[in-house]
């Protein structure tokens, strides 16, 4: 612990784990800490999309859209188990946006960056048999991609660990100071105990806490202010049977996504509300739930009410505080600030950003740090394959699993493919039979999978497993969730599970 590392990253969200992965892959020694679980804040509360941001074209953010579309191609290749193509339908409402404007926007969306894996946009005629109300007779369709956001963070952390990084969830950084040309960093575990780590460079990737960290931990004034914007989502029973998503234009200028979610549900979001509280305590308000239901009811035949919401969540986006316009028009771009002077250890702070561009942000961040770490190798993550992503198609891998493990139920194999890719073999090979998977805790969650998550993916609580490593919390009863909690508490006392 007294040997200095090259890079110490504070923050275990998508930007922090992305930077840790990029740096570790360049031969740098890396430590990452987070005060809670990995992806416990904004990075697990997104709209679950890898997308260019069609609406950002109206805000003339062509560079951001170009970069995001280029990253979409890279990430589809990097993680085919948790990222896959998704077609979007945009019902046309001529009183909001004329058809020529939408066609122009979609043409730009198709051509602003190279597109090899996704089909282009097209115009559709709607009939009375679809899920939309009969007043909608025309729609436009285009491509983007789905992502399991929290699993993307965990996979980046796993990939960083495979390259030598030390990953420390549940370690809060309580103090950082410059001493003898290094950073001296104090870390406190949530269960007590303090460690001191030394680092040549320090990265502040704490998302919505990036500015406030300067008030509590870092010995400098914050170089920028953040505009915290809350985005809320709700989950309801499936609204339509197709695999397509819908992007709904509301009369207030906002757009709302309706996304197929976990086979039996629809995910609806998001809102844009300025937020001034503690980011960890953000929740979807009754007003936001009413708003999302109202937007859906203005478009779909099937009407929904707040009583049908089976789950709701909210995340706080750390956006650049530029101007005082509407929250929905605040830029989703990012900025990096490097704080250093002669003889002082560098501090790099990340402000803003979006999940789609995390890899490019990480590459940019590490490029800046390598000025002070000349032994680092060059950029490498454009050819990245995340753990478990070394296969062709989800259907092909599912067929391989069916042949290797004929005892494995097909729905379970399909979920394992979408969650773990080829890494599911780590607990399937050891089991050999369904009975040997151990205790069944409900909804297809067996002890073998749960123990894998605890041993290799840093899971320590029922929420870590049921809402971040998986979404099985949607399907388990309160009694079953308590059973998972008790099983984990017992297993954590077994020495083979690292604490």
Automatic annotation (TrEMBL):
Keyword Acyltransferase: no
GO MF annotation list: glycerol-3-phosphate dehydrogenase (quinone) activity
SUPFAM superfamilies in UniProt: FAD/NAD(P)-binding domain
GO cellular component, one term: glycerol-3-phosphate dehydrogenase (FAD) complex
Required co-factors: FAD
GO BP, sorted A to Z: glycerol-3-phosphate catabolic process
Keyword tags: FAD, Flavoprotein, Oxidoreductase
Record's keyword annotation contains Flavoprotein: yes
InterPro entries (UniProt xref): DAO_C (IPR031656), DAO_C_sf (IPR038299), FAD-dep_OxRdtase (IPR006076), FAD/NAD-bd_sf (IPR036188), G3P_DH_FAD-dep (IPR000447)
Domain FAD dependent oxidoreductase as annotated: residue spans: 6-357
Reaction catalyzed: a quinone + sn-glycerol 3-phosphate = dihydroxyacetone phosphate + a quinol
PROSITE patterns, per the entry: FAD_G3PDH_1
Annotated Alpha-glycerophosphate oxidase C-terminal domain residues: 381-495
Gene3D superfamilies per UniProt: 6.10.250.1890, Alpha-glycerophosphate oxidase, cap domain (1.10.8.870), D-Amino Acid Oxidase, subunit A, domain 2 (3.30.9.10), FAD/NAD(P)-binding domain (3.50.50.60)
EC number in record: 1.1.5.3
Family: Belongs to the FAD-dependent glycerol-3-phosphate dehydrogenase family.
Protein name as annotated: Glycerol-3-phosphate dehydrogenase
Species the sequence originates in: Oceanimonas pelagia
């Amino acid at each position: 612990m007294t040997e200095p590392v090259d890079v110490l990253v504070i923050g275990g969200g998508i930007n922090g784990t992305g930077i840790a992965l990029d740096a570790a892959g360049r031969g740098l020694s890396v430590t990452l800490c987070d005060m809670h679980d990995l992806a416990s804040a904004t990075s697990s509360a997104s709209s679950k999309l890898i997308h260019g941001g069609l609406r950002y074209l109206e805000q003339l953010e062509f560079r951001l859209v170009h970069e995001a579309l280029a990253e979409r191609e890279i990430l589809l290749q990097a993680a085919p188990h948790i990222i896959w193509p998704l077609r979007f339908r945009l019902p046309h409402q001529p009183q909001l946006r004329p058809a020529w404007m939408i066609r122009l926007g979609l043409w730009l969306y198709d051509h602003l960056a190279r597109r090899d894996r996704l089909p282009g946009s097209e115009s559709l005629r709607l009939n009375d048999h679809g899920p939309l109300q009969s007043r909608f007779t025309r729609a436009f369709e285009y491509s983007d991609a789905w992502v399991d956001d929290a699993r993307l963070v965990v996979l980046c952390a796993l990939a960083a660990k495979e390259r030598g990084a030390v990953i420390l969830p549940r370690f809060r950084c309580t103090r950082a100071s410059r001493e003898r040309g290094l950073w001296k960093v104090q870390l406190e575990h949530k269960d007590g105990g303090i460690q001191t780590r030394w680092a040549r460079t320090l990265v502040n990737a704490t998302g919505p806490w990036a500015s406030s960290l300067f008030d509590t931990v870092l010995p400098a004034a914050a170089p920028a202010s953040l505009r915290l914007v809350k985005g809320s989502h709700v989950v309801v029973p499936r609204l339509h049977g197709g695999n397509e998503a819908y992007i709904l234009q509301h009369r207030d200028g906002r757009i709302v996504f309706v996304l197929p979610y976990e086979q039996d549900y629809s995910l609806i979001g998001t809102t844009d509300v300025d937020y001034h509280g503690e980011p960890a305590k953000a929740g979807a308000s009754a007003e936001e739930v009413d708003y999302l239901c109202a937007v859906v009811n203005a478009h779909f035949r099937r009407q929904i009410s707040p009583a049908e919401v089976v789950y709701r969540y909210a995340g706080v986006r750390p956006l650049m505080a530029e101007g005082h316009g509407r929250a929905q028009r605040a830029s989703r771009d990012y900025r990096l600030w490097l704080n250093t002077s002669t003889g002082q250890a560098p501090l790099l702070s990340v402000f803003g950003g979006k999940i789609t561009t995390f890899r490019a942000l990480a590459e940019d961040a590490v490029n800046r740090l390598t000025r002070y770490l000349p032994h680092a190798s060059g950029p490498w993550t454009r050819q990245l394959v995340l753990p478990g992503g070394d296969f062709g198609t989800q259907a092909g891998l599912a067929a391989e699993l069916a042949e290797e493990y004929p005892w494995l139920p097909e729905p379970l194999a399909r979920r394992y493919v979408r969650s773990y890719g080829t890494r599911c073999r780590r607990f399937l090979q050891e089991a050999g039979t369904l009975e040997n998977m151990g205790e069944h805790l409900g909804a297809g969650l067996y002890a073998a999978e749960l123990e894998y998550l605890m041993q290799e993916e840093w899971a320590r609580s029922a929420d870590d497993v049921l809402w971040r490593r998986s979404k099985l919390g949607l399907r388990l009863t309160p009694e079953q969730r308590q059973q998972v909690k008790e099983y984990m508490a017992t297993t954590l006392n077994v020495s083979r599970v690292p604490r």
